[in-house]
Amino acid sequence: MGCALTAGAADPSDTVTALPVERVWAGHPVGFCLLTQPPYQFVAYYDARRRMSVAQRRLGSKKWTITKLPSALGWDSHNYVTLALDRDGFLHLSGNMHCVPLVYFRSERPFDATSLVRVKKMVGERESRVTYPVFLHDLNGRLVFRYRDGGSGNGDDLYNVYDERSRAWRRLMEQPLTSGKGRMNAYCTTPKLGPDGRFHVVWVWRDTPDCASNHDLSYARSADLVHWTDASGRPLTLPITLENSDIVDPVPPGGGLLNVNREVGFDNAGRPVVTYHKYDAHGDLQVYAARHDGLAWRIIQISDWKGYRWEFSGGGAIVVEVKVGAVSALGEGRLALKYRRPGDAGVWVLDEETLRPIPGAKAPAEPPLLPRRFRKIESTFPGMVKRTRTDSGKAPPGVRYVLTWETLPANRDRPRRPPLPEPSMLRVLCIPAGSTAREH
To answer: What does the alpha-carbon distance between residue 329 and residue 289 come to, in Å, rounded to a whole number?
Structure first.
């Protein structure tokens, strides 16, 4: 099932191989999905005509079987597509939604994308204004579906759980996880399983569709995705609202919080560390880290960017100028934190106890996500950007898969006038462990 069994590389000395899927829409970005479950691999995407599509192959084969689904993409960059497998191997797919009725497909046969059929409802309630579909698995392996009901500035986060025997969904919790009570909504991260065996979530509240109205960075954790507590272990009554949130940092609206830059990672002791950005007292944008010490959240400024302010506002999908990662444990009392801003990108090495950068310290080099020869933009159309997605499934040992294609940047979910770029080639890269060291 290794890379040598897939499409051949142009240079026989290069062990990284590329397997073309088909050409895809390039007029604006929208998320695709790559899922490997040996002996199969699946890719969900929008083709050159913006049709929702699923490609499937058996690992070791160059041939894709492609299924077209009755759903077509408009101009909204929120409308990504995602898929997952339940414990019996049936495929579940959802996507192409931004405050619209549920779009959901399920396969009639295990590991067979050609048998995907539209299912009009899951539980049948609160499914008319759906956004941000997420599939995940709980600690028992059950398939869970999380989504937002409502809109930006007025929405709730709901969770469903799937039963394979009855082939039916039900609410995982009677109440939403978060509720804006008609006045706001929470932009939550996907629940992240920590080294403590619990799921951790962080979010910002937003009052309106204007992304400048984010405020009050908040946190919760759970062992079963049903019963939730704050960082000190105090049970939280559902739904979590602004009034009963565990607020990490009470940043006000217009204070520099952004819903795509709030992450949770873990230090060497397994303690959650929340990273984000906001404006400092001088109005400059800075990166911060927060960790609960058993009594309160302690907030540390990481960056020292003098005179730099990213002024973001308005609705629709914006071009993200700054990116803040989640901390990762390096051992020996050190943490790594990746960042990117215009003209500057790198990794801070943090002292685990103080959460402050260690002057001159460097993190161990990591292999790049893409080998060098696949980083170059192929299109000659101005402004094109390389897009990637990592594998959401389980690749065979010694191999990793990455999905690549090219598009124009986000355009606030508005149509672009011609001329438009030609469709780009969607590829699955098969990268053996250690192959990047042998690049040319």
So the answer is: 14
Q: Quote the DSSP letter at residue 127.
A: -
The residue ranges of DSSP E strands in 166-225, in sequence order, are 168-171, 178-179, 185-188, 192-193, 199-206, 214-222
| Phi, psi at 184, each rounded to 5° | -165, 180
Phi-psi region at 167: left, alpha or beta (left = phi > 0; alpha = psi -120 to 50): left
- The whole-model pTM stands at 0.95
Tens of pLDDT, residues 227-241: 999 999 999 999 999
Contacts (Cβ under 8 Å, ≥6 apart) of 221: 194, 198, 199, 200, 201, 228, 229, 230, 231, 272
Q: Which residues contact 313 (CB under 8 A, 6 or more apart)?
A: 210, 211, 212
> What's the CA angle centered on 276, arms 272 and 279, to 5 degrees?
145
Residue 94 has a CB neighbour count (10 Å cut-off) of 24
At 276-313, the pLDDT tens digits run: 999 999 999 999 999 999 999 999 999 999 999 999 99
Domain boundaries, the chain: 180-315
Q: Give dist(CA 48, CA 119) in Å, integer.
A: 25
CA distance 356 to 267: 13
Burial 189-210, CB ≥16 within 10 A → b, else e: bebbebeeebbbbbbbbbbbeb
Q: Find, among 238, 353, 329, 206, the residue nearest to 229 by Cα.
A: 238
